[in-house]
Design a protein that fits this description.
Fumarate Reductase Cytochrome B subunit, 4% strand, 4 strands, two-stranded parallel sheet, binds protoporphyrin IX containing FE, two-stranded antiparallel ribbon, mainly alpha
Length: 191
């Protein structure tokens, strides 16, 4: 996985760029919340049982997934340039190490899950539309059909792991905000 290797290198680089400011840049904060809404709604959309609106929800799932991939490029760029504020209440501790590890895995999932989604759709012969255009075919049905099921399973597994990690992430923010009462949520606030 060249992409994962490349992403790992970037993550190592950006983890060294912790900054002393008390909050993320405004661009990083907006990107975080826009992407969080997209990811949560696209995950909800896919959990709805088959029925009348299922098709529209699957269309939303795919379109929002591609937007996540596009925005991720801007987000990684911002992260490389601006770094992340150090977590005052736990600077240098194992909890900070764990939090940064979870963030790193979430970045990898924001990259790999949409890519797997596009690949498995194309491999089983379904074009992926984005804002009225058809995305270029990376893996066509002739070559991809034998891998379609594996790619689909990988997409679903990684997507479900992502869902659990988001839960862990959410609970840890709740813990910081209401039990430790530190600045973790404040540094991601847009209002
Ligand atoms: C951040 C982006 C994405 C996440 C987190 C995500 C996650 C998921 C999850 C959790 C499932 C359901 C797994 C299950 O049934 O247990 C799923 C299904 C699916 N995903 Fe994604 N996905 C993303 C992006 C995409 C993209 C970009 C495409 C295609 C262009 C795509 C196509 C699909 C399709 C076709 C299904 C099956 C839907 C169904 O039959 O109900 N996904 N995805
Ligand atoms: C739905 C998907 C979500 C994803 C993919 C996500 C992802 C991330 C990532 C990758 C970071 C690290 C940013 C960086 O250092 O570059 C982060 C930070 C943060 N997120 Fe989320 N997040 C999500 C939802 C949420 C929700 C619902 C909350 C509110 C409870 C939240 C609150 C925060 C806060 C306060 C930070 C800063 C914490 C810190 O730097 O230690 N996030 N998020």
């Amino acid at each position: 996985m060249l992409a994962a290797h490349w992403m790992g290198g970037i993550l190592l680089h950006i983890e060294e760029r912790k900054i002393e400011s008390s909050a993320y840049s405004m661009t990083q904060r907006w990107l975080h919340w826009i992407m969080a809404v997209l990811i949560l709604t696209l995950l909800l959309a896919v959990e709805v049982p088959k029925g009348g609106v299922k098709h529209a929800l699957t269309v939303w799932h795919k379109e929002a997934g591609v937007v996540v991939f596009v925005l991720l490029m801007a987000r990684v760029r911002g992260r490389v340039n601006s770094g992340a504020p150090s977590i005052f209440s736990m600077s240098g501790s194992w909890q900070e190490f764990l939090a940064r590890g979870v963030h790193g895995v979430m970045y990898l999932l924001m990259l790999s899950v949409p890519v797997l989604g596009v690949l498995f759709s194309q491999a089983r012969g379904k074009e992926v539309d984005f804002l009225g255009f058809t995305l270029p075919v990376i893996l066509d049905e002739d070559q991809g059909l034998p891998y379609a099921l594996t790619l689909r399973t990988a997409h679903e597994w990684a997507g479900n792991i992502f869902l659990y990690l988001i839960g862990v992430h959410f609970l840890s923010v709740v813990y910081h905000q209401w039990i430790r009462k530190d600045n973790v949520l404040k540094r991601m606030r847009i209002f």
